[in-house]
Structures are given as C-alpha cells and as structure tokens.
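Hey, quick one: can you model this chain's 3D structure?
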Amino acid sequence: MAGTAVVLRRIVCHQTTESGHDEVFFIGNVVRKKGAHPATTDQGDLIGPKAAQGANAGGPGGDNSAWDVNDSGGLSDQSLNVELFDVDVAAGEHVVVTVTFKESDGQNLADQEAQAAAAAGAALAAVTAAFPPAAVVTAPVGLAIGAVSAVGQAFKSVLTNEDDILGSVTLVLEGSASGQPQLVQVGATGRVLWKASQGSPAGATIGLSGAGADYQLTLGVSGAVMQIQPTTSNASTPPVDSGPVRPWPTKPLPGRSLPGGSLPGKPLPTWHRGVGI
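Sure thing. Here's the predicted structure for all 277 residues.
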C-alpha cells in the first residue's frame, strides 16, 4: 500500500465572501472501492486546518482553526504548501477524495462534524452507484463529477447558512501495480482551471466561486502522478512551485518519494468568473 497525502499548495483570492477577511477551513472525506467489494469510507478527523498546518484565524474549532485570507495585500496570494490529510492507496484500489472549502462565520465544530458525516454518506452512495457489481479495472466515467455533486448537495441539505460554502473538489486515485498511485479524475463544484501534464506529479488548480467569492486553489497529491489529459483555459500555465511542502504531522508515510507534487512553471494569470475552459 502506497502512502500519499492531499496537499494545499496555494490559495489565491480575488474576491472574499464578505467585506474584509475570510476565515477559510476544509472538511475532507475519503471513499474506497476495490474490485467487487463494497465501497467503504475512512473514519477520522478530516476537519482542518490545525495550527501545525498554518492556521492563523478563528474557525469552527476555535482559535487557529482556519486560514486568514483577503482579496488584497499579502493574504490574497498564499503559498501554503501544507498537507491536509494522509491517504493510503492499495494496488487495484480506487480512492475517491473530496475536499470542501468553507468560510467560517460563527459556526461551531459540532455543526461541521454533522455536515462532514452527511457528506461522507453522500460520497459513499455516489461511489457505490457509479461502480457496476462486477470488478472493474478503471474508474467509471464521471465518477469525480458524481461524487463532488453529491457532496455539494449534502452540505446544502444540512447547512444553516449556504453563504459559507466556497465549493468542493474531488480527486479520484487508482492504485497501480507499480506501487505509485495515479490521479485519474478531477471534479469540482467550480471550474477545473489547470491539470498537471500526463506522468508528472499530480496537481490541479480549481476555481471556486461559492457565496459570491472568487478563489483559485492549487492542490497536489504527494507520491501520485497524473494519468489524465490536461485541460486548456486562460489559466493553462501551471502555478509557481513555491517550495517544499509542510508535512501534516500525524504519522510517517513509508515509501513516499515525491515532495508533495512539484508544479514548476509561471504564476497563474488573473482569472475572472465567467471565463470558460
């Protein structure tokens, strides 16, 4: 089994959800499917960030449980390079990872835990429905889109204030016989602005515009490579490689060889809502 981690490399904010600062946090869920076995969900705390992940603002977990973000000054473009949570991928396994980004607005942790449970259940149902009863080698077409749509609807169904949702991103990983996981699908409730090229360290830039905001988030998967064709858009150049990744201090990951998905190239040009891929 290969150890990987979901990495938030960069946050760019062109418009916050409200006047002034946003306090941004995430909720993750992981669904696994192998062969003809039923899909399962990972258990554990996938709500962050924590102080060790660079949290510097108040969030649902109290002080230092969100990132301070603004649409001007230094807080509008932050190269965080931090691991959000670990994801192990076994050979022949499909792992569907969804990360939802939200803006904290006086919510408490119990509310977020309830929403996380609803989202995990929705993702599990979507993955179960997408796979045929027999074992398959490749992920079904549209798996990422189906999972991220289900998670988005689940959050809305239990959310008291929809303005808090920036959006969700789903990454579909496949375990290969070589032992190196592959990122085979990317889906989002917003726009997939850029994907890393075939065979390179896994990464993508997503545009999220929930609650009237305008965000670009660059995510990577350490130890995984891309096995899907890149898309083109006005944001087709890869984001700047801003340095080494800050590891998420939970447990060592044996066999990790890539430093969180190095994404070399020029900085992203400014992206505006309404521009198509």
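One thing worth noting: The longest strand covers residues 2-15.
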